[in-house]
Amino acid sequence: MFKKILIAEDQEMGSYSVQKTLEDLNIPNVDYVYYCDDALAKIKKSIREDSLYDLLITDLSFEEDHIEQNIKDGKELIQKVRELQPSLKIIVFSGEQKAGIIESLFTEYHINGYVRKARNDSKELKKSIASVYINENYLSFDLKQDVKKFNSYEFSAYDITLVSLLSKGILQKNIPVHLQEKDIKPNSLSSVEKKLNSLKEDLEMTSNEQLVAFCKDIGII
């Protein structure tokens, strides 16, 4: 099991969940920080002293306070950590549940595990730590289903434009005018209707409102 873990978490309840999990797993060396800058400083120090961390568990969102920080959020922290210690295992522990954002954490930021803050998150943390330790990426089953659905359809820029206009309260029949103003083609009403109907059919949606809600949930718009 991991011997040295760094926790970056600014919420007490989140820290408690992680702390309880690591106590149950008997991890011998655990450091806690409340700021991303402090997390990066700890990692730099561990590299200098040749006493590397095995795992970083970090939140994505960190509230601003009176202490000025250079690194504002978990994504930026992960980027900088990957530059310093590419082999470090990283688990994100966050309340974020949009499939598009979670997918990007694995594909763009190369995290090893994701656990959503929720009821029974201590159990999920244990599972994620065990999986990541044996070099298996971890994502809970419910979130896997959302990500799978997200990946089942590749949204084009045109698709996103149409749904974004709908989300702003623009009626479907008025969308062609907005497309024409921006010289976006195809921009006929029949083309718009055909594309939106195709989107809803592929994603098993029954209305434009449901389509907009889904795209918001997965982080497309």
- Low-confidence blocks of residues: none
Main sheet?
Answer: 6 strands, parallel
- In total, the number of domains comes to 2
| N to C succession of SSEs | EHEHEHEHEHEHHHHH
Which structural category do the helix and sheet elements fall into?
A: alpha/beta
Question: Judging by the overall fold, what is the CATH architecture of the largest domain?
Answer: 3-Layer(aba) Sandwich
Mean pLDDT: 87
Q: What features would you describe in this structure?
A:
- By secondary structure, the protein is α/β, with parallel strands linked by helices.
- The protein has 2 domains: 4-150, 3-Layer(aba) Sandwich (Rossmann fold), CATH 3.40.50.2300; 153-217.
- It has 10 helices and 6 strands.
- It has helices spanning 12-24, 36-48, 74-84, 99-107, 121-133, 141-151, 157-167, 175-181, 189-202, 208-217; strands spanning 4-8, 29-33, 55-58, 89-94, 113-116, 138-139.
- Strands 2-1-3-4-5-6 form a 6-stranded parallel β-sheet, with helices on both faces.
- β1 (4-8), α1 (12-24) and β2 (29-33) form a beta-alpha-beta unit.
- α2 (36-48) packs parallel to α3.
- The chain starts with a strand and ends with a helix.
- The relative contact order is 0.11.
- The model has no long low-confidence stretch (mean pLDDT 87).
